[in-house]
Amino acid sequence: MIKTGLAAGFMLISALAPAMSLTPQQVDDGVYALIGPTTGRTSENLALNANFGFIVTGEGVVVIDSGASGSGARVIAQAVRSVTEQPIRWVINTGSQDHRWLGNGYFAERGATIIALQRTVETQRGLAGQHLASLKRVLGEGMAGTRAAYAAEPLSGNRAELKPGGVAIELHWFGDAHFPGDVSVWLPQQQILFSGDLIYVDRMLSVRPESRVASWHQAFNGAMAAFAPKAIVPGHGNVCDVARARRDSGEYLAWLMENIRPAAENWEGLESTLAQYGDASRWEYLKNYDQLHRGNVHRSYVQFENNQTGELPNP
Question: What is the pTM for the complete model shown?
Fold first, then answer.
């Protein structure tokens, strides 16, 4: 009976153990990236198919993005613990897509303060039910205990300056991008940019119904004009420099603007536009090209046709 009980207990612990791990990659002193897979969401990767990060301060750890579930947040916490015993005291959300924030509850229950801009929180609230339901279909029991938790005191405006643990951190919204309310995190002392979903490298970015291509393109250019980062931790893909960010994200957004926008504005028709631009060998080097490119063209066309640009007026 004792052996049976021990075996059952071991099986339970194994079932609850994370299905994956994230390896911290040091970007600078005290600054780490967690690079997730570039594949889609699966139960095996706990929907951690994105990048995260953390900053170790003398007073605790700042986590950048909390994962898509309590299980995913636990994986991030374990990665932090592999580097430092400092407690996780702050969690910054760069966006409103599920893997940017649905792990908030796990960290909040352990005393962390959730930090986000008001515009980001508003989008999170609007999408929470939809994202929880869709992730439940993918992760099943991996969503157990996950709840939507938001910043208790959202930050107003398009920019915020913080100093958690004495480390200067800035949040910047340059315009809606992959999702409304997407922000980037700038570390001015280290000159490191955690871009959130403003930047994808190595893999093709995804234009979703919530995305705004014109605003995204404008936001990308705004971020590149505002900063001269020595390193970028993109929302997806490997740590990179400005040249790689421009090549894999900026130039693709510009291509959509230069080709799909005039096609829509000139009423060339969706089928005709897909026939002309649905295959674009220039972008075949990006992972997920086959799965995403035609859909990106389709959604971009519909946005431009309906004048859903999200562009900000020129200053």
Answer: 0.92
